[in-house]
C-alpha cells in the first residue's frame, strides 16, 4: 500500500469498541497539513457500531481509509497490530495511535520533519494532552483535573529529557518502519525468542518496544506534535489503567533484566521505594512534631526545601495544555495532589506484588 518516499505516512489505529469517539479521531487525521498516504483502522473484535460508523465516514470522504478486521486475535492491541504489520505493505513512516486520540493539524508534518532531520532517529512521540471534561460532576472534574496536571508534568519531563524519553507511547508515536522491523531480530539475538514486532503477552507493548529500540536507535519527543486523549473519570477505572501500566512496566524490566538501557529505569524503582519509605517517615514525624511543638521551632532549611518543591510543582503548570482555573485551585490546595501521589504510590507498590508473585492481571 502506498508509494514510499520521505514524506509517506501510514496511520495505524487499533480500535476495539470505539463508537463514541472514532469519527472524531478520523476527522483529526484528515485535517492534517501533511496528508497521510493511507489510514488503516484495525478493528479488533468489535461488538458495537465502530465498523458501521467507519463505513459511513468513508462515504463522506475521498481519503484512503482501509478497514482491517482482525482474525481470531487473542493478543489484544499488540496482537491486532501484529496482524496488520504482517499483512500490509506500509509506508516508510508509520504513525501508531490510539483510537481515542485526536491530533493537532500539524502533528504529522512536525513528526516527519523531525525524523527526516536525523537518519538514526527511530521514533518520535507526541506531547500528551487530555480531552476536555464538560460534565457537571465535581468528583469527575476533580479526577480529570488531577490527570490534566499530571499529563502536563509528563510533558515537562519529556522536554527536560527530550532525547531520552521513557516511552514512545501508544497514544501517538511516529515510527520509522525500518526501526520497527528491526525489533524481532533484536529479540532473537538478545533473548533468543521468535516474535513479531509486538509481544502479545505484554501489558504495555509500547514500553517494551521502546526498550528494544533504545539499544540501536535514538528516540525522542516532538514538542510540536500535539495530541489529546480520553482519560478515566472514576477511581476504579483509573486504578485499573494505572495498575496495568505500572505492573506491565515492572514485568518488562524484569524480562529485559539489567543492561545499559534498563539500568536507570531499575535504579529509579529502587529510588521510589526509598522515597516512599522516607515520605511515610516524614508524615509520621510531621504529625508528631505538630502535636508536640506546633509551628514553633521549624527549621528554616526544611521550610525552604518544602517551599522549593512546591514552587517547582507550580512552575510545571506552564506545560499543561489549555490550563483551567481548576488546575490552579488544585495546586493551591496541595492536599488533592498529595493524596493522588499516594494513590499512585500504592498502585506501584501493588504492581510489585502482582509481578513478583506472578498474579494474573486483566487488560
TrEMBL record:
InterPro entries: Glyco_trans_2-like, Nucleotide-diphossugar_trans. The chain crosses the membrane at residues 270-289, 301-319, 339-357. It holds the Pfam family Glycos_transf_2. CDD domains: CESA_like. It comes from Natranaerovirga pectinivora. This is Cellulose synthase/poly-beta-1,6-N-acetylglucosamine synthase-like glycosyltransferase. One of its GO terms (molecular function) is glycosyltransferase activity. It comes from the Bacteria. Keywords: Glycosyltransferase, Membrane, Transferase, Transmembrane, Transmembrane helix. Belongs to the glycosyltransferase 2 family. Residues 10-182 form the Glycosyltransferase 2-like domain.
